[in-house]
Structures are given as structure tokens and as C-alpha cells.
Amino acid sequence: MVTIAHISDPHVGSPYFVPNLMNRVIVELNELGPDAVICTGDLTNEGYRQEYKNWMAYAERIESPILTIPGNHDARNVGYLHFEDLIGPRHWTTDVKGVRIVGADSSEPDLNEGQIGRERYPWLREQFAVEADLKVFALHHHLIPVPGTGRERSTVMDAGDLLEVLITSGVNIVLSGHKHVPYVWRLETMYVANAGTVSSLRLRGYTKPCYNVLEFEGDEVKIHRRFPFGGGDTIAHFSLSSGAQHHRKSEPPVQERALASE
Ligand SMILES: [Fe+2]
Ligand SMILES: [Fe+2]
Q1: What is the CA radius of gyration of the chain?
Q2: Do residues 116 and 162 make contact, with C-beta atoms less than 8 angstroms apart?
Q3: Phi, psi dihedrals of residue 55, rounded to the nearest 5°
Q4: What is the pLDDT of residues 181-200, one digit of tens each?
Q5: Which numbered ligand comes closest to the C-alpha of 141?
Q6: Phi-psi category of 213—alpha, beta or left, where left has phi over 0 and alpha has psi -120 to 50?
């Protein structure tokens, strides 16, 4: 079995960042011992070097290999230079036990909106033109609108073209963050899994800080949502060959849940 933890949007430096949450998640990740931890951006709040350094102090305590891409907050104040300097390349490809994982920076300096951009499509196609048991693409912004996130302005600006590139490249799973609301969509044969904020109270509606754990074995993929300090559920379970969903979370739509809580 391959286990990949997906954390996102820690927002170190934000007044809403909660060190206790991050410390707890580090303990839980080290207990889980996944083959890799993917962090889909917004490590910092303003892209300042000291915020990056504070994030690194947390990230270095995670024992599994950690794969990181920047978010829009990390690209503020020319923070992408600190990302490259302290964390690594903003675009990368890696293989984890037969799983090909490609990460790409969708941020634009000082903008909340993002894109991958047509110049990068040939590179993306090339990275996925290999035999792999599972193909995963990670970016910060949404690829498909996520319910319960308010006015839609969070999908990458080239979402249509990018969706086509990814689906025709045989990508199985897309991981993203940004609006701090966990959700899973299926489009054709591809699953798009969004993670919440792992360690901040920058929350929309009644969502809670959380992270995802992806388990892959044979033909089956499961995605679990976990809440720091306990609790969680399975938000997707599907088979790769048929694309069939074995499980669809049976809770009411996000808006109805919000109304029920009022
Ligand atoms: Fe964020
Ligand atoms: Fe973001």
C-alpha cells in the first residue's frame, strides 16, 4: 500500500495560525508514517522570509519526505524567491513507490488568482508520459469550483485547458488547497481532491481544520479526511480501472449543512 498525506494552507504568520494544531498534526503524521507528505501551498501568510523559516521549523519535524508547492500567499512580497531558496523548486516531479507526482506553482506575484499557463502544458504532458501505477498532480488553486467557498474566483484562470491536459495525460488524482474547504469531485476518470487548512482558523462557514490521507493499493484508492486531535471520515473510495465510486459521502450539501447549524 502507498500512503500519501495531503496537508495544505498552514498559513504560518497569520494571526489565525494555531501552533497547537500544527504540532498535533506533526505527531499524527509521524505516527502514520506516510510514504510522502504533499503540502499544497500557503505555507506562509505574507511570503516573508521569517514566515518561511518558521514554517521550515515545523516541516523539518515531519519524518516522511515532504513535497511542497507555493500558494498565492507565498508569492506575496516576492516571497517566491524565499521559497526557491529555502524550500526548493516551484515545479517538480517525483516518483514514490510507483506513483508519479508532479507539482506545479499556480501562483502569480501579489495576486490571489492563479494559473498554470499554456507555456507549461508540454512540460506537464512530458512528466506524465511514463508508465506509473498512479498519476497525481498537485497545485494550490482549485481546478473545479468547490462548494461552500463563496464567490467563485479561485479556480486557476486556465482551468478548462488545464483539465483537458491533465485528463488526456492520464492523471488519476489532482490535489489542491486554497479556499480551506475539503471536497472531492470526479470528472470523467479523474478525481479532484481539495484539502482544508491544516493549522489555521481561516475557516469558511462551519468547516474545521483538517488534512487528507490518500491510500492506494492495487486498483483501489481511498481518501480520508482527518481532523487534528481525532475524528475523520472517508470522503472518496474508487477503483482506478473503472473509475467507479464505491463511496460517496452521504452528508447534505454544504449550504444545507450551514443552514442546519444556524
Ligand atoms: Fe490559504
Ligand atoms: Fe491560497
Answers
A1: 17
A2: yes
A3: -60, -45
A4: 999 999 999 999 999 999 99
A5: 2
A6: beta
What pTM, to 2 d.p., does this model score?
0.95
Distance 200 CA to ligand 1 centre (A): 9
Q: Is pLDDT of 261 > 60? A: no
Task: Give me the residues near ligand 1 (ion), CB cutoff below 5 Å.
Answer: 9, 42
> What domains, with CATH codes, occur in the chain?
2-260 (3.60.21.10)
Extended beta strands in the chain, E state: 2-7, 36-39, 66-68, 92-96, 99-103, 134-138, 173-176, 183-187, 190-194, 211-217, 220-226, 232-239, 245-248
**Among the bound ligands, the one closest to the CA of 76:** 2
**H-assigned helices in the chain:** 19-32, 49-59, 79-82, 121-128, 159-168, 254-260
Distance 212 CA to ligand 1 centre (A): 15
Q: How far is the CA of 213 from the centre of ligand 1 (A)?
A: 19
Among 198, 218, 196, residue whose Cα is nearest residue 207: 196
